[in-house]
Amino acid sequence: MYKDILLSVSKPTRYIGHEINSIRKDLSGIKTKVALIFPDAYEIGMSHLGLKILYHIINNIEDAAAERVYIPWIDLEDVLRKKGLPLVSLESSMPVGEFDILGFTLPYELCYTNILTALSLSGIPLYSSERSKEHPLVIGGGTAVFNPEPIADFFDAFFLGDGEEGIVDIVNTYNSWKGSGAPKQTLLRQLTKIEGIYVPSLYRVEYNGDGNIKSIQPEDGIRDKVKRRIIEDLDKAPYPISAPVPYMQTIHDRLTVEIMRGCTHGCRFCQAGITYRPVRERTPEKILELIERSLKNTGYEEVSLSSLSTGDFACLSNLLKSLNDRYCDERVAFSLPSLRIGTINPEIIEQVTSSKNSSFTIAPEAGTSRLRAVINKEMDEAQFETTVDDLFRRGVKSLKMYFMIGIPTEVEEDLQGIIDLAKKARDIGRKYGKGMRDITVSASTFVPKSHTPFQWFAQTPVEGIKEKIDFLKMGLKRIKVNFKWHKLEMSLLEAVFSRGDRRLGKVIEAAWNAGCRFDSWTERLNFQKWKEAFKEYGIDPNLYASKEFSLEDVLPWEHLDTGITKDFLIKEYKRAISNRIIPDCRYGSCPNCGVCDMEAVRGNKEYGIRPIAKRPEGKTDIRHQTADCRLGNKGLKSDVWSLKSKASSLHPIKVRIKYSKTGNMKMLSQLEVMTTFFRAFRRASVPTAFSEGFHPHPKISFAPALPVGIESICEYMDVELTRMVNIYDFKQELNALLPSGLEISDIREVPVNSPSLNSIIRFYAYEIRFNDIDSGYLHERLDSLQAGELWMQRIVERDGKKITREINVRPFIEDVRWTGDDILFLLLKTRGIECCRPSDVMSALFNISYDDSRVNIRRIGLYGKGNDGMISIFDITGKTAVFSY
């Protein structure tokens, strides 16, 4: 639906869909159609594991289908509104308003205005009270739903907790209601019978005269509290091993495998540590199986072992050793996104840096042992120094240290502690040649989150945070350590919505009407517009962010139950004030937080919510079902434990590949085409040769880049292989793994030392078709401009600034002529190392813009220069095509 406008917007790859592994069901026979909406840009949402899991589960339900929707960037939103076009899904381009269910993933509070963009562009009323049974059911899930009150009026329902089982219940309930003819209210009440479902319209909020909440009352027949849904065993949970692979680079452009869920450390500021309890580990055998199958289906070159605290995974060292042994020769890197001081031992560092010489992030959180006791995060400073030394000694490039400022009870001594820790890291780094740019302190402002022991504490006002930032800036500058900090206004808004109530819905709508979009993007946040929105409704944001709640106050999220008792949170709040630490329940006694079924923990019953984990030292388990850290081949395909590849690069060969790039693939940039081919090579197990050194790269080179938006039937690449392959099978298998629009037409062997494609290509042939443009005008323009200079202006970007460059295209034109009334043949040539674009010629000759949908440009030939004129790229080496199919 958007194909005629994509060249006029930034990053068109965001919107073309049809990625490898995307699922396109025939919707005509589907009973329930679900649009899974991530309220942010494509490159953010495509990195979100939760949405991939739901996509996988729903599409495995026979009479249901899930399609993905991401929020269009500002430029495309403007075009859609001007042209009256709706927001559509990626898979089938079906308008979002025609789906049965809209499932929003809510990962953070600063995406709230984007929710309204999605509803508005879909022609759906913003408020639940204004929607009838003819409109889609609008439901939200994710980490932000544990206080959804600021956006409660926009949603029909929310789902709290693990969604693997809940999403099936929701679809089945909707299916049963859909054909019944019953009113929407019946559906909403039926949904409340599902554990984890919260329907805001069925709860009435009353306020006192001072503005505080008096009570939250459910309607008759509705539960007083909504309990979080918890899945018991991750090994039994469905997991996406064939997730869609994006063409463009995303923020986490790698395979993500969740190795465990939950955390036992109990950091008092951490909402995820509460809402993902109890800790549940996948078995090493299951993890290895998921990685093996996922890599085969996606072709990723990096795997992230994901969890809230990956270093606490019981069998991590053995797991990493097995992974590196298995994938070393395949150049697969493994990253650990969340490591804690005390779990980063030399063995783990060695395993990680052996596959990727990367940077490391550690999170002391606070500068002194006293303040770390307040937040219940132990860290021995001697161990900190040992860890930093181990990291730099084993070749880690750079170190980032993450701290939080504005923590309750924080004083200047605690801020000085941050500077002191940074100085220790700097002094250690100097022994290994590290300078200012290699060590970074990053600080963010404490945000009180619902359902945590710190939910009652106030956030430090912005002026107070500025003083703390200034103190750190001066101190860290003095010791020459790099310093970055989170935008203060973002943290303020996050605190407002983390602790807010339903009165904020109108503020969100007002800010959205004023143009607020993508507020989590630093460059997009317009805090002035937010201030005006708060003022319009007479609300002081500081009354939400900087208010100290009493333990007796009714909190906006009081009716939502994470499984953690309020009594436990109050005890933790009081322990924080008195600087008391409680031990990790993986090792110490049970703190009685309330989430576990103690009968299941004791082994008196087979099923029930309880931790599924193992003590790393291999002693007594914290549950009666154990997970053995000694890895074998149980549950794996027979080739998982095969010996390392014996492929030798002593006798490499080079092949030259000719391919076409048509249809939606014309929107891919050169880098995106390269990545798509490389991952197809991995899926096909092509024996690609790599360069040597710390950062090995595949030996693949491409012809000069084709501008985005231009088709081609004659693109080329050279690939060096470690051994001979059957060329015909090579071509057939790769074409089966490439997306529609990328197709290999020819493969031939060329000498390994043959010159690069960039150095031999001299001529570029194009066919240009004009639609609905007066051919008389076109012919007249070309005839009148056959001689003389042809100047045009092109806007280029240099050093982040856009400048206008004037180009005379005449010297680059070798031939231009009509081959039909509306078909122009254009042959361009290089001059030195430069050549113009065909769109430059269109602008100079006909004053037609490159993004004009009435013009279709296709590259039909690339040639080298021989003694008798142009010659084929295959013939330029003089080698016979022995292996051509």
Short descriptors:
six-stranded mixed β-sheet, 885 residues, Transcription Regulator spoIIAA, alpha/beta, disordered C terminus, Rossmann fold, nine-stranded mixed β-sheet, 5 domains
* Helical fraction: 25-40%
Strand content: 15-25%
User: Which regions are unreliable across 5 or more consecutive residues at pLDDT < 50?
Assistant: 617-627, 632-649, 878-885
Determine the mean pLDDT. Answer: 90
Number of strands: 30
List the helices and strands and how they pair.
Elements (H helix, E strand, L loop, with lengths): L31 E7 L3 H4 L3 H11 L4 E7 L3 H10 L17 E5 L6 H10 L15 E5 L15 E3 L3 H16 L5 H8 L5 E2 L4 E5 L5 E6 L7 E2 L27 E4 L1 E2 L9 H5 L4 E2 L2 H15 L3 E5 L9 H12 L5 E3 L10 H10 L4 E6 L3 H6 L6 H13 L5 E7 L6 H19 L8 E7 L16 H17 L3 E4 L2 H12 L5 H9 L13 H10 L5 H4 L14 E2 L4 H12 L20 H4 L51 E9 L8 H14 L16 E3 L8 E11 L5 H11 L4 E9 L6 H4 L2 E8 L4 H10 L6 E8 L2 E8 L4 E8 L2 E7 L8 H9 L8 E12 L2 E4 L13
Parallel strand pairs: 1-2, 1-3, 3-4, 4-5, 9-19, 10-13, 13-14, 15-16, 16-17, 17-18, 22-29
Antiparallel strand pairs: 5-6, 7-8, 11-12, 20-22, 20-23, 21-22, 24-28, 24-29, 25-26, 27-28, 29-30
